[in-house]
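Supplementary Note 3. Input sequence used for the single-chain structure prediction.
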Amino acid sequence: MTNETVIYHNPQCGTSRNTLALIRNAGIEPTVIEYLREPPTRDQLQKLIADAGLTVRQALREKGTPYQELNLGDPNLTDSQLLDQMLSHPILINRPFVVTSLGTRLCRPSEAVLDILPQPQKGYFAKEDGEVVINEQGSRVV
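The predicted structure, written as discrete structure tokens, is reproduced below.
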């Protein structure tokens, strides 16, 4: 079977690390793209956003980015202008995006990835902050 799972990952982000760990907890070794080092192309970014059912603005990250300095809250900015900024400053791309055979999601919170994983969880999983997401039987804790 070919590897159909891709994560656009930032190793400095706890949500991104938890998402990657949940993918691996399902026995899947994804293709990991550190998008700050290897940003997507404009076409790839547009496809990720569209496939996830988001608007460009919804895929824009504010916290810890030059969002304010670049005045990206201006409602008159077009999607094209926002994409230009996201490509110039990849830290503005919200994270992590995950692509599997079952769909594309912006995995915030990290357990959103469970909706698109093609394999079940193999066992217990807790986030870095200790929050239990998957019990010992591999079932989601609500």
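The mean pLDDT is 96. The longest helix spans residues 14-25.
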